[in-house]
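Possible race condition, two jobs.
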Amino acid sequence: MPKPESNPASKSDPIEKPSGPPKPPSGDSRRGAIAGLIIAAVILGIGLWLARDLTAASKMQDCLMSGRSNCNVIEPAR
C-alpha cells in the first residue's frame, strides 16, 4: 500500500523564522494625513483670497458711500 504524499507547504513548522524586519502598518494613516494637510492648505488659500477680495470690495463701498466718484485705484506709471 503506497503512503499518502505529504505536502510540506501544508505543514506548519513550529519554529518559523521571520523573513526580514516586521512590516509597518499600512500607509493609509499617512495618506489620510497628507490628504488632510492638502485640503487644509487649499481651504487656507481660498480663505486668504476671499478675505483679500472682500477687503477690497469693502474699501470700494466705503469710498462710494462717502459720496466720492473717483474711487478706482490709479496706479502710477513706471
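Job #2 (started ~2 s after job #1):
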Amino acid sequence: MSDELNNQPLWTGDYYNQGTGPNDIFDTLKEECGVFGVYGHSGAASLSYYGLHALQHRGEESCGICVSDHTEFHYHRGMGLVKEVFDKETMATLTGDISIGHVRYSTSGSSHLGNAQPLVFRYRAGELALATNGNIVNAPQIRRELEEMGSIFQTTSDTEVLAHLIARSSKPLVEAAKEAFRRIVGGFAFMIMTNEQLIVASDPNGLRPLTMGRLGDAYIFTSETCALETIGAEIVRDVKPGELLVLDQNGLHEDFYTEPQRKALCSMEYIYFARPDSDMNGANLHSARKRMGSMMARESFIDADLVTGVPDSSISAAIGYAEQTGIPYELGMIKNKYTGRTFIQPSQELREQGVKMKLSAVRRVVEGKRVVMIDDSIVRGTTSRRIVNMLRDAGAIEVHVRITSPPFKNPCFYGIDTPDRRDLIASSKTVEEIRQEINADSLAFLSREGLIEAVGGDNKDDYKGGMCMACFDNDYPTQTDFGGEEQFGCGC
C-alpha cells in the first residue's frame, strides 16, 4: 500500500504507520523493546503477561513469553499486541515458576515471527531462552566470525549472536555468559533462562534500563518500574552497569562480568520513551519532564495565550512550562489512540494530511490564540511542520515551538531506531533554519545543562548526569566503528 505526498509514499509496509523508513509519515523516534523476567512464582506466565502489557508502549510489533517448569520450556510468541497474541487457552499452557517475556517495536526489514522473542534454542546443556532490549554494535563482525566457524543463524536478531557465543563455549553456563558479554559492545539489558536458572545482565554503561523488584519470595526484573506497580511488586534497585545476577534454587547471586564504565543511561528514556509513572535512577519521569518544561520556560520564555503539549509524551513538560510561566495549560491537541495497527487504507484526504489520523487540534481552544507548543524532540521535522500547520489551520495566530531536549543531531547505536544522520534535520540545519522549515513563529531547544539539571535523580553529580547524550553531542560512551558494519537502532 502506498500513496504520494509530495512524491513520497506515505507507507510501504503491510499496514498504516508500520516501519521506520524515511517515508514514515510520523517521524518520531521509535520505541525500543521491553523485557520482563520472573523467578520463583507459580504464576510466572500471568505476571509476565501483565508486566508486558505495562511495557506495551516499548514495542507493538511482536511479543512472547517463555516459561520453565524445571523440566521443559513452554513458550508462545506472535506478531501483534500482547492482548492479541495471548488468550486464555494459550496462557493455560504456559506453566512454571520461571519466565522471561519480551515486547518488540516495529522495524523496517526485519518484521517477521522468526525475530520475535524470547528466542529459544537447544544446545549441548539443554534448553536456552534469551530476550534483550538494546543493540550489539559489533554483532555483524561477531556474526561473520561465527559463520566462518560453522555457525548457522536462524534469525537476523543480535540476540542470537550471544546464544551462539554461549553454545560454543566449553565452560559452565554462567562463565560462558560472562565470557560472551565481555565480547559484545553496545547497550543491552539481557535475560537468559534455562530450566533451572535465570541470568540477568546489564551492559557496562547501563545504557538500557533494567530494574529488580520483589513480589513475596519471587524476584521480578523489568525495563520499567511501571510494570512492577502493575503486578503489585516492590522496587528493590536498578541492575548496575556490568552486573550479572544469577537466580537458582540457592537464591540470588550478585556478580559482575566486567568493570563498570561511566554510567550512561539513555537520555531519551527520561525525555520520551519511558512511561511517566516509571522511576529511573531515583527520578520519577513525570516529575523530571515537568522540570524539563520549567527549565525550558526559564531558558526560552515567550509570551503567549496558552501552552499545549503534543500527546502523550510532552504533556508533563507542557504542564511544567505553564506552571513556570503562569500561562494557562490547555488541551490544544487530542491523540487518537486507535490508529497504530490499522490495515484499512485512509481516505484520500487523510492520506494527504496523514498526521490528522493521529492528532487533531481542538479548534475552540486554539482559535485566535498565541500558542506555545511543547514537544520532546524533532527528528526529520516533517511531523513538527504538520502539527504547526494543523494548529494554524485550526485558527492559532502564532505557534511557538519549544523542544524539551537539545537538537537531535546524531544516530543512536544502542537501541533507538533513528534515521541516517543525513535525515536528522538538526545535523545540517541551524535552529533558525529548522524554525523556517517547520513554519513556527519561534523555536527553542532545551540546553544540555538544562536537561541534566532537570532530570536530577541519583546520578545528577555524575558525568552528564549519568546519561548518554551522544544523540545530541556525538560523545558515544563505547566504540561504535567496527569496520563499517555497525548498525543503528535495535538489534533485538
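The two ends are 27 Å apart (CA to CA).
Logs attached separately.
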